[in-house]
Amino acid sequence: MTLDGTAIDLYANIEVPDDVVQVKASGASGIGLYRTEFLFMNRREAPNEEEQFEAYKAVAEAMDGKPVTIRTLDLGADKQMNADTERTCTNPALGLRAIRLCLAEPQMFHIQLRALLRASAFGNIKILIPMLSSLTELRQTLLLIERAKQSLRVQKIGFNNEIEVGGMIEIPAAALCAEAFAKELDFLSIGTNDLIQYSLAIDRTDDSVSHLYNPLHPAILQLIEITLKAGLKLGKKVSVCGEMAGDSKLTRLLLGLGLRQFSMHPSHILSVKHQVLQSDLVKLVPTARKILSSHDSDKIEPLLQKMNL
Ligand code: PEP
Ligand code: MG
């Protein structure tokens, strides 16, 4: 809780089921991002439905009713299934990755969706779709989720029919159209790592341009603001699950912009919680608005420092 009594959710990001031990020790309110692609990486064959089901079920059961947000496969670009695979496209970050790959490989996606849905009978699982850029992709995905549900119904296999489906906002086009996405989804999650990469045209894996990778760029703050506003208008929760959420120097700014759900590596939860406990939203909001209306990065830094005093 902030000093003025506003409840804030601090969730954890995980990559493999064993990470849950650290999540529980961190005191997180749940899992805000389970990156399932790690189950698929560094191997030749994709895991079958049973292996995936066991992994998702183990996490759901270990979290004991707390939310577990499982992201569907975000393979491609910096996360290849087989590191030896020769890259055939010149620009993998703009290529067939994440939800695009899943829609191009519906059988592989069907297996993951069935595994996720089956696991939803054992805990509080939500589905999160990565890299959405258009409503067409979202609608195709929702159709495939329905198809996976139907296949389980036919086999009389249990699942949570009301399972929530959320979308990652990590492409500028999606942030600009956040309201349209919020209408057809249960929640949104801002992936600032990719949002920064795509908005500023900076390869997040290229050290030679890492000095330009700036979360405080006015354009990034505007895109976050648009997304938060869309969630507020439509009554849908919005979280940030990129690195920005775990940077305690940015906690007050994000709170002042209206963020109430943060998801981060479990090792950052304590320092972010410390900031939340010492923050008074009434005082933060005016400075956050000032930062938002500044289109000059040089002015943003001193304002942020003042906010963090
Ligand atoms: C992001 O892009 O901010 C995100 C959380 O996803 P990933 O880092 O796995 O691409
Ligand atoms: Mg991403």
Q: Describe it for me?
A:
The chain has a single domain (9-307), classed as Phosphoenolpyruvate-binding domains (TIM Barrel), CATH 3.20.20. It is 45% helix and 13% strand. The protein has 13 helices and eight strands. The longest helix is centred in the middle third of the chain and has 20 residues, at 135-154. It binds phosphoenolpyruvate and magnesium ion (MG). Residues 33, 35, 74, 170, 191-194, 241-242 line the site of phosphoenolpyruvate (PEP).
- Secondary structure: number of strands: 8
Order of helices and strands: EHEHEHHEHEHHEHHEHEHHH
Instruction: Return Rg in Å.
Output: 19 Å
Report strand order across the widest sheet: 1-2-3-4-5-6-7-8
Kindly estimate the percentage of residues that lie in beta strands according to DSSP: 5-15%
Keywords:
single chain; about 300 residues; alpha/beta; TIM Barrel; 13 helices; 8 strands; about 45% helix; binds phosphoenolpyruvate; binds magnesium ion; phosphoenolpyruvate-protein phosphotransferase activity
Q: Mind sketching the topology for me?
A:
Blueprint: E1 9-14, H1 20-26, E2 31-35, H2 49-62, E3 67-71, H3 98-104, H4 106-119, E4 124-129, H5 135-154, E5 165-169, H6 172-176, H7 178-184, E6 187-190, H8 192-200, H9 218-234, E7 237-240, H10 251-257, E8 261-264, H11 269-277, H12 281-293, H13 297-307
Parallel strand pairs: 1-2, 1-8, 2-3, 3-4, 4-5, 5-6, 6-7, 7-8
The structure holds phosphoenolpyruvate and magnesium ion.
Residues 170, 191, 193-194 line the site of magnesium ion.
